[in-house]
Amino acid sequence: xxxxxxSVAKDISVAHEQMKTILNHSSVPWKDKLSVLVADSLxxxxxxxxxxxxxxxxxxxxxxxxxxxxxxxxxxxxxLLNPPxxxxxxxxxxxxxxxxxxxxxxxxxQSTFTTKRGRELxxxxxxxxxxxxxxxxxxxxxxxxxxxxxxVVSDETGQVVWKPMWLLVIGHRCDELSLVECYEAYxxxxxxxxxxxxxxxxxxxxxxxxxxxxxxxxxxxLTLLAYVNLWxxxxxxxxxxxxxETYLKTTESVKTTPSLVQRDFYRIISSLGTPxxxxxxxxYSPGRFKGEKKVHRARxxxxxxxxxxxxxxxxxxxxxxCNSLR
Length: 326
Known about the structure:
alpha+beta
């Protein structure tokens, strides 16, 4: 299911329409079930999250930039249960870049994992619940508290390996997911990024240019089917290293990647054969009939987007330009 992105449309509004269509479609198997949406830091703004919290069965996990500022829920004192004036929504400030504003996390989970190169690292996930972000009249975010996660990876000496990562978990059913499940769900986002990179470089995903949306959808599905075939043939492939890939020759257990399967896929597909018969000539095409006219495709205005910081060019009148050249 693809969506046509118009030049005048904004990415946040298009993503919202995509999610609304996918979640409410009658044919999807996850309808009325707990669903998890994973997105990057661009979609951690209230204009996007304020729309996703309207879905009761959707939990959104987004990355958060390390310079964001959030707030704790305000808890009034016993003597000020009914203070005069507008009720206060936001409590103490929680600045991600200022550790002095942090309070003790509500939950901490620690574990270890081993990288592909055999390096053992320590994982620490800290979670702060019932956090708030500033809202507007259109998006009252004070009504939708979320869980804030900090992921820190360190080595055996306690030295931090990578920059700490912040995640935001929001939704009516976000408490049903543990801290580890939220982290593992966000890690699956990188698998999609690898798919897009490989499909564009090796499977020609973005090489087909067509003005028809239907043809583009068919091409995308064709590239995805090709990727599925590589995954199904991973156990039949033979490692064919390049002359300079000495690490593939010396390593006994080499992980079969889609690129390695693609090198040997011609041998695999040739051994399977095909049920199709060889093509035969059935005559010559009659071509275009006499008097037939093709309908020209409608021409549309070209819309160009300029960067926000690009300065507008000053147009000099022609007579001023001529006088300056004299």
